[in-house]
Amino acid sequence: KSTDNAIENATLVEVGSSSNRKRKRTNKEPAQTTADNTRWDKAELSNRIIKITSQLQLQGILWAFSKVLDPHGSSSASSSNHHQPSTTSNQHAKTSSLAPREVYGRVAEMNTIRNLIAENKCDALTVLPIVGIAGVGKTTLAQSVYNDPRVKGHFHHKIWVCVSRKFDEVMLTREMLDFERHEGSPHKNGRHEGISSLAKLQEILKDIIEYQSKSFLLILDDVWDSMDDHQWRKLVCPFVSSQAKGNLILVTTRNLSVAHMLGTREPIKLGALENDVMWLLLKSCAFRDVNYEGNQSLSIVGRQISEKLKGNPLAAETAGALLRKKFSIDYWRIILKNEDWKSMELGNGIMAALKLSYDQLPYHLQQCFSYCSIFPDSYQFLGEELVSFWMSQGFVKCNNSSQRLEQIGQCYLIDLVNLGFFEEVKREEPYLGCQVMYGICGLMHDFVIMVSRTDCASIDGLQRNKMPRTLRHLSIVTGSAYKKNQHGNIPRNNKFEENLRNTITSVSELRTLVLLGHYDFSFLLLFQDIFQKAHNLRVLQMSAAPADFLKHGFEEVDGSFPQILSKLYHLQVLDVGSYTDRTMPGCIDNLVSLRHLVVHKGVYCSIATIDNMLSFQEQHGFKFHISSGFEITRLQSTEHWMHVDTLEDVYEAGLVSNEQSEKLHIAMEGEDWEPHWDLTVLKISLLL
């Protein structure tokens, strides 16, 4: 049949009246066409398009007219909702209900707020931020404060406003006045109706606040970073001038920078709930009964699910809603196996809430955060390590020639910490003192794997998913595949090697390759064989994972130094800290783009052609052996650590006057130098 006949014979059947109309084609004959007999009746086709367009326009007019007649959507709600899909922010505004809710955990935080309110009788205005990632319970805690009988007696006025992403002083002031009127304020005559002037609206609000000089509680829920300090000062101007004492503004926000900008007190930071508390919350959501002790099989699976929710209350509500649909052990096991609570399709779920935060990031921060998905969820980074990774991939952009890329990258990291994507962990390390590490917060790691799956992947165990052709960043975690036997040896794992061969089909476009964990020598040979053509690598990390991974059994690896370095001309970051060979291969001279090098503290180097490595910047724990073929003066652009024999070497190298050097560490070592026990002062004089 020709195309026009096929169209003529096709009938569009509408099912229902929603915008998600299902259309099915009922053909009298198969609508198959070929290039040779295709004929188009342009006039007929044009008429059909005009007719369909008119119908769509009419439907839009009818929908708009129905909204005028029924602005709250009370009738036909089920059929009209999908005409105008609600955004996550709208959903949040609706969920900022003030109905009392049970709060699980947060006893310490609630007591902190109560004590502050009870003791805060002198200050005219206190701003207390509550900060945390999406779904952690900021709004729920604020609701609990609002409804707490012990809090109620301290305030004459209580106002609740959901701010969300658009910070509009006029709109927010009007909402405060609307709230006061609906709550039965003595000034409930609606004097603000029709007024659009911020000054006049605030004059009315100030009049209400100062009525009998009573104190007030203002809760600003879900404040984003869409305002500046000037806008904030304008908004709170009526409250600042109040004569009453003990006034409190409670602010909930995902952004630590916002909390620091607005707060007059240190913010309350909400972290993950304990597993036992999460189980109580999940029982409440799934069974509607926190004391449920019925089906023990369901309880066992439920506990396993609660432990996977990583302490996030919204995740518990999301999972509980799914579990409540069917009290079947098989159904619950499917939920557990598939981790269905992570679905992006759940509009009110935890992943949708996290995605809202992610979507607000500028593109360069999205790149930096997504990149970290190749590392395990409990991995902790050093700040310098993270920045070096981002720089190697070109994520860090320099718009000001006076700023170094390292400084800009550190600003990126601070932004991601303030926005809740990373958390700081301070730990004491031998010889190094207090170190600040960075880890991805809770369910954020599960989320980032979902949004980065086209560019990033991690192989852990015997998974058999083919790597996408768009893959650029890959990690291989061997901890579950290689375990020491009773003799302390690591036996070969043929299945894991076979899986690696079948999974990795192309390596030429890889930009990052990370190997974490221990393995045997056969795996090392296979690794080097598979990745010998990965010539575009910018990052190569083959070290035992730092920090917490050591206690999980990832230990240092002895063996020949990796031989895949000879053609890595683009490599900028090389981390081979697990290798204890006393020398490095001569092919390291080919790494002309290298900027960052991490090696074991016991490795000594004698590299006569180090000056070929023009971009070389860091040598963490790297000791340079001063030999006849090597001059320290060739390293005037280096930073951090360098082994020298005398202070004259430091002067000759020009390190003291080098503008690019930020740190100079002079260490005395060896048995030949021992200070006298009576020595109280060591003076190093810099002759300028």
From TrEMBL:
One GO term of the biological process aspect: defense response to other organism
Compositional bias segments (type: Polar residues): 81-98
Record-annotated NB-ARC domain positions: 113-288
Region (Disordered): 1-39, 73-100
Statement: the UniProt record of this protein carries the keyword DNA-binding: no
Limits of the Disease resistance protein winged helix domain: 374-448
Keywords associated with the record: Plant defense
Protein name in UniProt: Uncharacterized protein
Record-linked Pfam families: NB-ARC, WHD_DRP
GO MF terms held by the record: ADP binding
InterPro entries for this protein: Disease_R_plants (IPR044974), LRR_dom_sf (IPR032675), NB-ARC (IPR002182), P-loop_NTPase (IPR027417), WH-like_DNA-bd_sf (IPR036388), WHD_DRP (IPR058922)
